[in-house]
Amino acid sequence: MTTSHAASETSAAPVFVEKRPLERYAAPAQPSLVGMSREALAEALGEAGVPERQRRMRVQQVWHWLYVRGVRDFDAMTTLSKDLRGSLAQRFTLARPEVAAEQVSVDGTRKWLLRLPGELDSTPHEIECVYIPETDRGTLCISSQVGCTLNCTFCHTGTQRLVRNLTAAEIAGQVVLARDRLGDWLASQPAANVEASGEETKRGGREPERRLISNVVMMGMGEPLYNFEAVRDGLNVIADGDGLSISKRRMTLSTSGVVPNIARAGAEIGSMLAISLHAVTDELRDQLVPLNRKYPLRELLHACRHYPGLSNARRITFEYVMLKGINDSLADAKALVRLLKGIPAKINLIPFNPWPGTKYECSDWEQIEKFSEVIFAAGYASPVRTPRGRDILAACGQLKSASEKLSARERLALRAMAMTD
Ligand code: SAH
Ligand code: SF4
After folding, report:
1. What's the CA gap between 265 and 225, in Å, rounded?
2. Which range among 236-240, 324-328, 386-390, 414-418 shows the weakest confidence by mean pLDDT?
3. Which of 324, 350, 414 to mutate to test the pocket of ligand 1 (most atoms within 8 A of CB)?
4. Which residues, other chains included, contact 135 with Cβ-Cβ below 8 Å and sequence gap of 6+?
5. Catalytic residues
6. How far apart are CA 20 and CA 227, in angstroms?
7. Strand, coil or helix: what is 249?
C-alpha cells in the first residue's frame, strides 16, 4: 500500500522540497526591547544616549528588569535614572507578542494564539504557543516560523504557503509572554518568600525548578533549522543565567532533518535534539517528509550519531507519527529499533492529528499499543504520552470547520501531548 501510494504521488505532482519565506519582518517605528539579545540591547541603549563605557552595566540592569522581573513599564526600572527611563520610553516599548486567544484546560494546559506583525499593509500573522504543566516540570512549546519552509504531507502547517521567519526577539518573546500569563516572574512571588530563601542572590533569579516554565521545546510551527540564526540567538536569550534562565539541557529543538544544520546546532546551540523521523525507509520518508530527498536517512542518522554531547544521559528523541496503514506495522516497529541501534535514543510515538483535507488517518489505538510494545521490549521506556489538554482539544474539534487555524491549534495541542518525557 505504501509503495503504490508513494509511486502515484510522485508521478502526479513533483513535490517541491523547500519554500522560501515570502514575507519579512517589518520592524515597527518604536521597537520593543522584549526578546532582545544583549548585543541588540546594548545598541538600543546607545541610541537612547547611554555612553559606551556605561553600556555593559546598563545592559545588565535592563536585562534583569526584562527577564527576571518581567516589567511592562519603563517606570518600574527603578535602578535607571528618570532621564534614561524617559529616553527609552520615547524610542522603545516593552510590548509582547499580542494574545489573540487563550484557552485553558482543566488539567492546566494552556494555549495561546499569538499575533505577530506582518509586512507593511499585510494582515497579521498567527502562531501558537502551548504550556503543559506536569508534576515535576512545566513545558512551553514555542514556534520558529509562521508557516513552515517544508511540506511534510501529514502536517497542516506544511500546507500553508505563507512563510515568515520569526525574529530572535519574537522567539524569546514567547517565553516572556507565557511568564506574564502564568504570573511566573520573580516579582509575582510574595516578598517574604523571596527573602526567606535568599533566591535573589542566585544571579538575580529564582532557581529554575521553582519556575512554572522549566522546559522549552521548539516543536510548534516551523522548521527551526531553516531559521537558524534567529533560533540560536532566541534560545541564547532564553538560556541566559541572569535572565529567563532555562538551561540548554532543558530545551529541545525538533527538526525534520536539515542535516548540515544539525552539527551546527550542536556546536552553536547545544540544546537537546529531537528528530521527526516518521518512517524507516527512504521510500516512505521521501513521501512523508520530502526533505528526505535532499538528506536521506543514512545522512540523517550519521548526523545524529555525531551530535555533540550525545550520551545515555543526553539522548536524541525520535518522533514517530502513527499513520494508519502507512508506517504502523509491527515490521516497521522492528525496523525502527534496528535503525536506531547504537544511538542513545528516546522514541515518542505521536498519535496523528487529522486536519480537513488530509489523506491520512490516525492508527488504531490497539495498533499503537502493539507498536509501542515492540519498542518497549527493545528497551525504550513509555513511548506514548498521556494525552493532555483533551478538553480544549474537544472545543477546537467542534470548531474545526470554522477555521483552518483552529485545526492548526489542535495539531499543536496533540503535539504537546506527545512530547517530553
Ligand atoms: N518542524 C519541526 C518542528 C515542528 S513540528 C519538525 O518537523 O520537527 C513538531 C512535530 O509535530 C514534528 O515531529 C511533526 O512531524 C509533528 N506533526 C506535524 N503534524 C502532525 C500531525 N498532524 N499529527 C501529529 N504530529 C504532527
Ligand atoms: Fe514543517 Fe515540521 Fe510540519 Fe514538516 S512537520 S511541515 S518540518 S512543521
Report:
1. 8
2. 414-418
3. 350
4. none
5. 128, 396
6. 11
7. helix
Smallest CA-to-CA distance from 336 within 324, 354, 349 is with 349
Distance CA 19, CA 413 (A): 25
Name the more confident of 23 and 315: 315
Largest separation between any pair of C-alpha atoms in the chain: 71
DSSP classification of residue 234: H
Query: Measured in whole angstroms, how far is the alpha carbon of residue 264 from the centre of its chain?
Result: 18
Identify the nearest ligand to the CA of 275 by its number. 1
Helix (H) or strand (E) holding 252: strand 251-255
Is pLDDT of 13 > 90?
no
Show the DSSP H helices in 76-227 as ranges. Answer: 82-91, 168-182, 191-197
Q: Any idea what DSSP says for residue 236? A: H
DSSP string, 387-404: P--HHHHHHHHHTGGG-H
One-letter amino acid of 17: V
420 or 115, which is more confident? Answer: 115
Instruction: Give the whole-angstrom CA distance, residue 370 versus residue 333.
Output: 9
The 8-class DSSP code of residue 66 comes to I
Concatenated DSSP letters for 306-347?
T-TT-SSSSPEEEEEEEBTTTT-SHHHHHHHHHHTTTS-EEE
Distance 97 CA to ligand 2 centre (A): 22
Say if ligand 2 is within 6 A of residue 240 CB: no
Q: Which of 19, 128, 271, 319 to mutate to test the pocket of ligand 1 (most atoms within 8 A of CB)?
A: 319
In the block, cell 497542516 appears at: 156
CA 223 to each of CA 129, 139, 144: distance values in angstroms, whole numbers, following the listed order: 15, 19, 7
Does ligand 1 come within 6 angstroms of the Cβ of 414? yes
Residue whose CA lies nearest to ligand 1 atom number 24: 352
pLDDT score recorded for residue 1 = 32
Higher-confidence residue of 351 and 119: namely: 351
